[in-house]
Amino acid sequence: MNNSNKLNKEVVDSKAGMPLNKTHIYTLIGFIIIAVFWVMPPIEPLTPMGMKVAGTFFAMIIWWSTVSTIWPSICGLLFIGLSGYAGNGAKGFTSVFTSAFGNNIVLLVMVAMVLFGAFTASGAPKYIARWILTRKILNGRPYVFMALVFAAAFFITGVTSAVATLILMWPITLRLMEGLDVNSDDQIWPYFFVGLFLVINFARSVFPYKGVMVAILGTYNELSGNADPIIFVQFMVFLTIMGFLFTSLYLLGLKFIIRPDVSKLRDVSVEKLAAGQELPPIGLPQKLYLAMIPIYIFMLMAPSVLPTSNPIVAFLETIGPLGVTVFWVVFFSIVHFQNRQLLEYKEVAAKHFNWGVFFMIPSSLYGSAALASDATGFKDLLIQILTPFLSGKSELLFIAILFTFAVFISSFANNAAIALLMMPIIFVFCEQFGIDPKSAAMVLSAIVFLAMLTPGASPQAAMTFGNKDIYKTKDILRIGFPVTVIALLLYIFIGYPLAKILFL
């Protein structure tokens, strides 16, 4: 696989290298689940149609986590159409696909992947990394150095992808470590590189206008009937605050509790770092793409923070995130540099359009909504099964149980797939116990990405476990497990109350 394909492999298929026989086994398991759910008598209170939808959705979860994303997504919609959920006959079957792919979130992702793919292809992220890592404040300050490396990784992950950031940051940081004479035998090595991975993993959902985060947050909006939708800008603020707290706690824990030997990092200087960051002078394309990011964010935020009586703000509210993203795609397509468009749509789409994410989003949105609808009886079944375990608990304990379960199960299955499975569960029980589902759903959307203790958790986890030149499995588990527990507690005791304030 070439680097351009790797850069945008933000997909739910974290088992791309799985032997063919295992792929066939998991494929067969999914079809067996569908067959069993379609022929067995309904498990009350599930309806006959609910059994078919539930079996199909569970099969998609298994396939997304173990096999692929494209054909399972199409296959899932096929079986939901055959279940009669949208009506019988050709009209009902066709309605499933037209409704799924006609969702405005699907269109947003289609355009955003090209826009941010062009941002990555321009080379702008490399200039961000170089600028951050050549600030004089880090001279002779090991923990400031690590904080700036982590900050660069966090920001680049937010505007590109976790996989892209790993591919970009690994060679940069390895050159930095080589220049400082730090090697894998030094005590600080695993804490630095595992910490880098943890920050990247944490930041992958901070900019939710791209990738699977759109599907996860969009699923909540669909389940709520868009009556009280999650506003993506608020989600960005929440994740940025939590990311700052997480990174700060990690570095403070290193400095004052673990206290690894950082003597070699005391030689860090701007001159040494700059020597490993040779880049040509920044050009017009990179400058425009870098300027686009803050303006893009402002255009998204403006309708939420400024009065809509202003005609420009009113216009931005009218076009929404989809319109803002389309505007920038058109802008970069019109502007030319050296007789070339700054955004060659077909060229960028060929390298950076992620078909796995594109097909997963409509199938996950539609499948989750179908599963949680009154026609299936799935919500009643969840209440019947889980009420004995959750009833009588305080709100905080209730939230802690659900979040802990989500983190545990997503350590062994794909993060995004588990978030999609958990969303209707969160929604049902928050309503059942009189808890605002919005705050819980928002934290759930972020908390599943804490899980990274097996290669199956995410694509970047698979990449990290497989990179034996940098990471040892024992170091990932030794450092990652306690950090995951601490991050879980951070979300339960600080993140959830913060979400309730931000999402009133």
TL;DR of this structure?
By secondary structure, this protein is an all-alpha fold. It has helices at 3-7, 20-39, 48-66, 70-82, 89-101, 104-121, 124-132, 142-159, 162-179, 188-203, 212-223, 232-258, 270-275, 284-305, 311-334, 345-352, 355-371, 378-390, 395-410, 415-432, 437-447, 459-466, 473-502; strands at residues 336-337, 340-341.
Question: How would you portray this structure in words?
Answer:
A two-stranded antiparallel ribbon has the order 1-2. A hairpin with a 2-residue loop joins strand 1 (336-337) and strand 2. The radius of gyration is 23 Å and the shape is globular. With 504 residues, it is an all-alpha fold. The model is unreliable at 1-18 (pLDDT under 50). It has 23 helices and two strands. It has a domain at 106-352. The chain crosses the membrane at residues 23-41, 53-80, 100-122, 143-168, 188-209, 230-252, 288-306, 313-335, 355-375, 396-427, 439-458, 479-499. It is a multi-pass membrane protein. It comes from Desulfitobacterium hafniense (strain DSM 10664 / DCB-2). Pfam families: Na_sulph_symp. Its main location: membrane.
